[in-house]
Design goal:
eight-stranded antiparallel sheet; alpha+beta; Hypothetical Protein Pfu-838710-001; single chain; 199 residues
């Protein structure tokens, strides 16, 4: 599995406006998509557990994603470091299906339960060696992801390139997200953001 170097941040109204203006002036718009995702659980061997800090967490995420262009089934497996409250993607299996509703029905008949729905609108942009994604997530708000796709070096160097881009856009302080949208929906009272000053 290829290593991904990306930073996901939460946006307030001012930050969202700053990013949108910069994207319009500098980036190439690629597409806009709507994702409706269902996260499933296997009750006989649940994917979920309670983190030592008290919030609901998972090491495996089993998802069906529906969008206009088609649908897919995906299983992501993570290694969880409860001391640092960080996760690392270990493996991912994803494939397309022609009928997501039928796939969802099949999995429910096999005993999987429908746990959480993530409904989001996504805009995708390219800028030099980066892919930039703007997400508007129902019930959560606005977010942006910045992924480095250029020449490979060390993880630290590639991550610094992402932070340099954020400074170029106009960000001085960001709130990075340590968990995905489904984790935020599971734990509405828990703050997964980590403030970072961009020097």
């Amino acid at each position: 599995m290829a290593r991904e170097v990306e930073v996901k941040i939460m946006l307030n109204a001012k930050e969202s406006t700053t990013l949108k203006k910069w994207l319009k002036a500098n980036a190439q718009f690629k597409k806009e998509v709507k994702h409706l995702e269902y996260y499933l659980d296997n009750p006989s061997q649940t994917f979920y557990f309670t983190h030592k800090l008290g919030f609901k967490d998972a090491a495996k995420y089993f998802r069906i994603r529906m969008e206009k262009e088609g649908a897919s089934v995906c299983l992501k497996i993570f290694s969880i470091d409860q001391e640092k409250n960080e996760s690392k993607n270990l493996d991912e299996v994803e494939f397309n299906v022609s009928d997501a509703a039928a796939a969802l029905k099949l999995l429910k008949l096999l005993g999987f339960t429908d746990k959480t729905t993530v409904d989001k609108k996504r805009k995708v942009y390219d800028y030099k060696d980066f892919e930039i994604v703007q997400d508007c997530v129902k019930g959560l708000g606005e977010f942006a992801e910045f992924e480095y796709k250029g020449k490979k070096s060390t993880y630290k160097n590639e991550l610094e390139k992402v932070f340099d881009l954020l400074k170029q856009i106009g960000f001085k302080k960001i709130r990075t997200q340590s968990r995905g949208y489904v984790s935020m929906l599971w734990n509405p009272r828990y703050d997964f953001t980590k403030p970072k000053i961009l020097n």
